[in-house]
């Protein structure tokens, strides 16, 4: 191979490497930012996912759950009512109220009905696998999931949003919105004071971002994919060109 051919091959490899880096960087940028042409601009994509959780105890004005003399039937009835209230929380009227309080379009909230009361208690504990972090498996940005304790009048509420503040606000709004709906229901149906349901929020909402490194990981993956695919494409084209050249030489030899 002559010096000129060597220089040409080296420049060709360098140009391919530069092109592969450029493609990888472009894919990484497109992963992190949304490009608009009119007007030309870059908008950062919301790649982070935050989750929050809160626990609600359902009781009546008579305070059945804290009454040591309460009959077992009363506790069972209250637990059944808790499951019903969990179903009510994910209905459209309540989601409209929750969206209004959290300043979120109710249509953007994906609400999941409560887990059936037949599910074992260990599967719905706040620290079990079925908790707020499981919500990030789906692509929707706002989520509301309700899980009901099978033995106690307690609901666990899990929320997902793009930011920790929004996730916490959505969790708080779910309690406030449900209270507001039940209050309207008590008024419209003239429910007696002692039979009215009250929601007791047990502690403050806990929440935070659950995938801090998602943006970096996705950008790195996009860069590697673009870089490797470009080099593979160059190599594939080079093989085809070599094959065509050899085929042409064979055809000339046969003549």
Tell me what the structure shows.
The chain starts with a helix and ends with a helix. Helix content is 49%, strand content 20%. It is built from five helices and eight strands. β5 and β6 form a beta hairpin. Strands 3, 4, 5, 6, 7 and 8 form a six-stranded mixed beta sheet that branches. A two-stranded antiparallel ribbon has the order 1-2. The protein is α+β, with helices and mostly antiparallel strands and 255 residues long. α1 runs antiparallel to α5 (214-254) and α3 crosses α4 (164-188). The longest helix is centred in the C-terminal third of the chain and has 41 residues, at 214-254. The relative contact order is 0.19. It folds into two domains: 3-45 and 213-254, no CATH class; 50-209, no CATH class.
List the helices and strands and how they pair.
Elements: H1 3-32, E1 33-36, E2 41-44, E3 50-60, H2 72-89, H3 92-102, E4 109-115, E5 142-148, E6 154-161, H4 164-188, E7 197-201, E8 206-209, H5 214-254
Parallel strand pairs: 4-5
Antiparallel strand pairs: 1-2, 3-6, 3-7, 3-8, 5-6
Helix pairs in contact: 1-5, 3-4
Question: Number of domains in the coordinates?
Answer: 2
Alpha carbon gap, first and last residue: 28 Å
DSSP, total strands: 8
Mean pLDDT: 78
Structural class: alpha+beta
Total helical elements:
5
Strand content: 15-25%
Which radius of gyration do the C-alpha atoms yield?
30 Å
Main sheet specs: 6 strands, mixed
Which segments are poorly predicted (pLDDT under 50) over 5 or more consecutive residues? 119-139
The H/E string reads HEEEHHEEEHEEH
Q: Percent range for helical residues?
A: 40-55%
């Amino acid at each position: 191979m002559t010096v000129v051919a060597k220089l040409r091959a080296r420049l060709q490899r360098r140009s391919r490497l530069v092109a592969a880096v450029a493609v990888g960087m472009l894919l990484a940028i497109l992963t992190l930012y949304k490009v608009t042409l009119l007007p030309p601009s870059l908008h950062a994509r919301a790649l982070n996912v935050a989750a929050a959780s809160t626990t609600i105890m359902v009781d009546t004005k008579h305070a059945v759950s804290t009454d040591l003399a309460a009959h077992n039937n009363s506790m069972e009835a209250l637990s059944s009512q808790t499951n019903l209230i969990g179903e009510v929380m994910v209905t459209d009227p309540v989601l409209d109220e929750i969206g209004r309080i959290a300043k979120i379009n109710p249509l953007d909230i994906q609400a999941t009905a409560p887990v059936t009361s037949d599910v074992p208690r260990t599967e719905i504990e706040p620290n079990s696998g079925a908790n707020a972090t499981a919500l990030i498996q789906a692509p929707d940005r706002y989520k509301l999931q309700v899980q009901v304790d099978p033995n106690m009048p307690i609901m666990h509420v899990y929320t997902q949003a793009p930011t920790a503040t929004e996730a916490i606000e959505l969790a708080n709004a779910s309690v406030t919105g449900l209270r507001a709906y039940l209050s309207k229901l008590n008024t419209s149906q003239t429910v007696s004071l002692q039979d009215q349901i009250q929601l007791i929020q047990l502690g403050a909402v806990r929440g935070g971002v659950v995938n801090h490194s998602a943006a970096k990981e996705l950008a790195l993956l996009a860069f590697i994919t673009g870089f490797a695919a470009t080099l593979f494409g160059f190599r594939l084209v080079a093989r085809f060109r070599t094959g065509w050249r050899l085929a042409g030489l064979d055809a000339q030899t046969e003549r």
